[in-house]
Amino acid sequence: MRSETLMRSGGGQSRLTYLNHPHHQQQQQQQQHEYFHHHSQSVLPRLPMLISHKPLAGHQTSPQIAMTAPREGSGDMGQSTAQRQPTGSTIPDALSIQEHGRMFNAYRQGKYLMPNDGEEQNRLDLQHYVWQTMVHNRLNFAPIRDDSRVLDIGTGTGIWAIEFAKRYPKSTVVGTDISLIQPTYSLPMNCSFEREDAEDEWMFDAPFDYIRWRLMASCFRSYKDMIYKVYAHLAPGGWAEFHEWAYEACADNAETEEYYNGSALRKWLEYVVGGGASLGRDLRSPLHYRQWMIEAGFTEVTVRHFSVPLNGWPQEPAASTLGNMACVNCLQFVNSVTKFLLAGGLSRDALPAFVDEVRANVRDRRMRISFPSYVIYGRKPDAPATHHGESMRVDNILNM
Ligand SMILES: C[S@@+](CC[C@H](N)C(=O)[O-])C[C@H]1O[C@@H](n2cnc3c(N)ncnc32)[C@H](O)[C@@H]1O
Question: Whose CA, among 102, 168, 203, 265, lies 20 to 30 Å from 192?
Answer without folding.
Answer: 102
